[in-house]
Design a protein that fits this description.
Bound molecules: 2-acetamido-2-deoxy-beta-D-glucopyranose, zinc ion
Number of strands: 30
Strand order of the largest sheet: 6-5-9-3-2-12-15-14
Largest sheet: 8 strands, mixed
CATH architecture of the domain at 61-189 and 197-246: Sandwich
Structural class: alpha+beta
Number of helices: 31
Strand content: 15-25%
CATH superfamily of the domain at 61-189 and 197-246: tricorn interacting facor f3 domain
CATH topology of the domain at 61-189 and 197-246: Immunoglobulin-like
CATH class of the domain at 61-189 and 197-246: Mainly Beta
Radius of gyration: 28 Å
Helix content: 40-55%
Length: 944
């Protein structure tokens, strides 16, 4: 998952971009290529020999044994589904049948073969010796009914372990469910004539991380790379896509006409990157060396929604080839926009799948942020071509190598299309990672291989830690090495050395070590193997400096020492200097000591280190006064980071909340997005804690006062229906409008209602950037007719981003009965698509009027939701996260505990970690609110 994903939830919601962390959680991708190297002669992908991993055996270990190694597969799949129900075909079928022959190399004399299989009826199993085709006698085969998903084949006689080849043939039957995992079915409507909609059906797949085993029996571990030769037999009027370029022909089976599409062999790749699609989609293409295709519903292609993606894909791909110096002679990159997919996007080899709003852009109605979402998502997925698809983590415990790199590199990738988002990585990824990593229940970036075994443990890794902390730590490493060229050189060596193979994080350290005299492993091991992150506390009177683990709940972790690379700045000379902290102290740092009464110290310049900083109250005050006097001397990123650190330190009882609040006062003089966004995110948390209490009145008043100047700063644009030039100004214009309107600034509400009225009367003059905020405000202050109008517009809209904006705006009403009705709609896929269910409920929960409704709704439908979203465990986490954000009372805590108990009874373990975090956060909130309510109230009253 990537961008669109990077934005904070507050902003994301503010601008109606669909970006719950789930979406980000899982983004992935791939492509089809042979590798070439600029400076070196091209070389063929190696045939897999012995896998680098030595898996350790049977249950309870759950890893495949290493007696046999897969080398290549021949797979036939025949889905029976029709693309539409017409007079010609009336009996829809969701069954599929198939067979697979996998060639294995036997490494040790043995009688057993273990593969993975799940939810398939395996009807035939045969094992033959490859050279003689002699059939071996089986004593039995059985499927283990436990989390191992093993298909165990027992032979009467031993296979010879002298690298002898055998062919394992299986025949199987399965069903395309509408569950968004494995090989699945998806239903959507297509306009066939102006007023006629027709139901359509397609089959598609999502294997990552462990669902290839649901499609055919296979060795479903990332290190067991093999070559795949796929054949898909499908109905006329459909086309089939897979990882390589398909060649369709026709055939007759039992008197029926079928299309047989054969796909040439892939290079050696992991099973999780396989993909199959059968649909009646069309596509648009660009061919300048590499064939780039974008596939989507016919309507979307005809409307030109795929053009933007087509254009940027080429640019980004070329850019990556230049910076990685590892060139693809890519055969093709298919990208497909799916009506239903449980992740933002998936980097399948040669066939990248996206949510529609992650790939399609309607130039007429898209906001800058919609485009940014698409371009960053594509950049993330294309980065996976290198990081993940050709160099793959050895086991899921190092998933961050895939996701951290893809997230980090996407910020470089988008530059190919003129986007300068580099500083935004701090807001989008790093501040979010700080949040996720502030809990006792967090996990280290790199887990032990043996700690990750079951599919649900693997799925649980697709979170903000692997994606965002992964990216944050890579950015820190680049700064630590100190020379961007040296860093990139090490990365290039890593890619070259491990292409078509698997790697562990130590391999990366070794490649980077070649480029620097600093000890990379000693530095990085403290960041990847330790849970959490530090706060560095500096007492500027004495220079005394300590580091401790930052945790929101009070039990702070002592005794852990990160290697903290501190870049700092003092007002005495404004020169950035460097220091390294290796012990958990306290240690005295004379250079942090400040004698002059007016001087201040600022550490972690540009937030390049993944840590927070705390100071003595006096230094905080001096920093605040500097901001009020002349904020420009404090680097922009730090103006935001100071606010983020202060509020979080206050949440963790390490700083007075009034000190944090004090830092927001200077904002009347600052129009930059960075500090504003940091402040709004944190004030948003305060609002969540208090918007059901009497403290809310004074908070609203303060927010209204602070935002007025920003609102007026952009008012000229807003009035004219135009937008500022600079991207971050565009973001801040939206912040100004949504905060002003939602905190009762009457000129804002009037403006929004009047523009919405024009829209209802037939002219929508609202600039696409402002639509989310303005629709939302108008619906919040409007009546049920306004809501109905937006609902109809939502159903009518064809551009995915416009649909999302309306879907968000519908959650803004204050009418309980409308919100309840809307919640009910989320269970009806003909009204709210499955893909959109979680984010819709999250939007409703964000609305103070919708919060209790959403929570009751989720609790009430928990078993239904968990069943329908089997693989959407990640979405479940973000759903729980969102509907409990405000929780800060004992009653609410008890309700979550109750859900956790029921969950344990059913032994589902779904979203278990998310529940842990919710409980931890709620406990922290309860404590914090008790302690701070009065202080907060008094501070805000004092500002009135
Ligand atoms: C249905 O069959 C008729 C006659 O075989 C053919 O002309 C028509 O195109 C078919 N319609 C569809 C939607 O396949
Ligand atoms: C596998 O299935 C395909 C398509 O149905 C069929 O043509 C082929 O003969 C099958 N292979 C074997 C070994 O049965
Ligand atoms: C194993 O293979 C090697 C090389 O092919 C051969 O020299 C040796 O005799 C074989 N051993 C057995 C037990 O088949
Ligand atoms: C699998 O086998 C069971 C039991 O025979 C049967 O009920 C089910 O329909 C089969 N599933 C498929 C997809 O063929
Ligand atoms: C901090 O970031 C800004 C903006 O990206 C950059 O111009 C500046 O050089 C950076 N400062 C340091 C010390 O890296
Ligand atoms: Zn990804």
């Amino acid at each position: 998952m990537a961008k669109g994903c990077g934005m904070s939830k507050a902003v994301a919601i503010g601008i109606g971009v669909l970006t719950v962390s789930s979406v980000c959680g899982l983004v992935m991708m791939a492509v089809m290529y042979k590798i070439q190297i600029d400076k070196y002669p091209p070389r063929d992908p190696p045939i897999p020999t012995k896998p680098p991993v030595l898996p350790t055996g049977l249950p309870p270990n759950l890893r495949l044994p290493d007696n046999v190694i897969p080398e290549s597969y021949k797979v036939f799949l025949q889905p029976y589904l029709y693309p539409a129900i017409t007079n010609n075909y009336t009996n829809q079928s969701f069954a599929f049948t198939g067979n697979s022959t996998v060639r294995i190399k036997c490494m040790t004399d043995s009688k057993t073969i273990f593969l993975h299989v799940l939810d398939l009826n395996v009807t035939t199993v045969e094992v033959r010796k490859s050279d003689s085709n002699e059939k071996l006698s089986l004593s039995e085969y059985r499927i283990h009914q436990n989390e191992s998903n093993f298909l165990e084949i027992q032979l009467k006689d031993k296979m010879s372990g002298n690298e002898t080849y055998y062919d394992v043939f299986t025949k199987f039957e399965g069903e395309l469910h509408n569950d968004l995992t494995g090989f699945y079915m998806s239903q959507y409507t297509e306009k066939v004539k102006d007023d006629e909609d027709q139901e359509r059906f397609l089959a598609t797949s999502l294997m990552k991380p462990t669902d290839a085993r649901k499609v055919f029996p296979c060795f479903d571990e990332p290190a067991l790379k093999a070559m795949f030769e796929i054949t898909i037999i499908h109905r006329p009027d459909t086309n089939a896509l897979s990882n390589t370029i398909g060649d369709p022909g026709t055939t007759e089976i039992n008197g029926e006409e079928w299309i047989v599409t054969t796909f040439p062999k892939t290079p050696a790749m992991s099973t999780y990157l396989l993909a199959f699609t059968v649909s009646d989609f069309t596509f648009t293409q660009k061919s300048s060396g590499i064939k780039i295709n974008v596939h989507a519903r016919r309507e979307a292609i005809l409307a030109g929604y795929a053009e933007y993606a087509l254009d940027v894909t080429e640019k980004i791909l070329n850019h990556y080839q230049t910076i990685f110096e590892l060139k693809h002679s890519v055969e093709k990159i298919d990208q497909i926009a799916l009506p239903d997919i449980s992740v933002g996007a998936m980097e399948n080899w040669g066939l990248i799948a996206y949510q529609e709003s992650g790939l399609l852009i309607d130039k007429a109605t898209a906001s800058t942020f919609d485009e940014e979402k698409v371009v960053t998502l594509i950049a993330h997925e294309l980065a996976h071509l290198w990081f993940g698809n050709i160099v793959t983590m050895r086991w899921w415990n190092d998933l961050w190598l895939n996701e951290g790199f893809a997230t980090f590199m996407s910020y470089f990738g988008v530059e190919a299309d003129g986007w300068d988002l580099r500083d935004l990585i701090v807001l989008r990824e790093i501040q979010t990672a700080f949040q996720a990593d502030s809990f006792n229940s967090s996990q280290p970036l790199s887990m032990q291989e043996n700690d990750i075994q079951t599919s649900s443990e693997i799925v649980g890794l697709f979170d903000d830690i692997t994606h965002r902390k992964g990216a944050a730590v890579l950015r820190m490493l680049a700064t630590f090495i100190g020379n961007e060229n040296a860093f990139m050189k090490g990365i290039k060596a890593y890619l070259f050395k491990f292409q078509y193979q698997n790697a562990v994080h130590k391999d990366l350290w070794e490649c980077l070590q070649q480029e620097t005299t600093k000890d990379v492993e000693a530095f990085m091991s403290t960041w990847t193997e330790t849970v959490g992150y530090p706060v560095v506390t500096i007492i500027t009177q004495t220079g005394e400096t300590t580091q401790e683990q930052f945790l929101l709940k009070q039990a702070w972790g002592h005794g852990i020492a990160w290697q903290v690379d501190i870049r700092y700045l003092a007002s005495s000379d404004f020169v950035v200097k460097q220091d390294v902290l290796k012990v958990n102290g306290p240690v005295r740092r004379p250079h942090f000591e400040i004698e002059d009464k007016d001087e201040w110290l600022l550490a972690n310049v540009n937030c390049t280190g993944f840590f927070r900083v705390n100071y003595d109250e006096e230094n905080w005050n001096k920093l605040r006064m500097q901001l009020e006097r002349n904020h420009h001397v404090i680097p922009l990123i730090n103006r935001g980071q100071l606010i983020d650190d202060a509020f979080n330190l206050a949440r963790a009882h390490r700083l007075n909340v009034t000190t944090a609040l004090g830092l927001t006062k200077y904002l009347i003089n600052d129009t930059e997005y960075f500090p504003w966004e940091s402040a709004l995110k944190n004030l948003d948390h305060l609002v969540l804690m208090f918007d059901r209490s009497e403290v809310y009145g004074p908070i609203m008043k303060y927010l209204r006062k602070q935002i007025t100047i920003l609102y007026e700063h952009f008012e000229e644009y807003t009035k004219n229906g135009t937008i500022p030039k600079k991207l971050t100004d565009q973001y801040n214009q939206v912040n100004a409008i949504s905060v002003a309107c939602s905190n009762g600034l009457s000129s804002c509400i009037t403006m929004a209602s009047s523009l919405f009225k024009d829209y209802r009367n037939g002219t929508n003059n609202i600039h696409p950037n402002l639509r989310s905020a303005i629709y939302c405000s108008a619906i919040a202050s409007g009546d049920d007719d306004d809501w109905e109008f937006a609902w109809n517009e939502y159903q009518r809209a064809t551009a995915p981003a416009e649909k999302d904006k309306l879907r968000y705006a519908l959650s803004c009403t204050k009418e309980i009965w409308l919100l309840n009705r809307y919640l009910q709609y989320t269970l009806d896929p003909s009204k709210i698509r499955k893909t959109d269910m979680v984010s819709t409920i999250n939007y409703i929960a964000k609305n103070v009027a919708g919060q209790p409704l959403a929570w009751d709704f989720v609790r009430g439908h928990w078993s239904y939701i968990t069943q329908e979203y089997g693989a959407g465990v990640i979405s479940l986490g973000s759903l729980l996260d969102a509907v409990t954000k405000r929780f800060s009372t004992d009653v609410e805590l008890e309700e979550v505990r109750q859900l956790q108990r029921e969950q344990d009874e059913n032994n589902q373990g779904l979203a278990a970690q998310a529940l842990e975090q919710v409980i931890e956060r709620t406990e922290a909130n309860i404590e914090w609110v008790k302690e701070n309510k009065l202080l907060v109230k008094e501070w805000f009253i004092g500002e009135m």
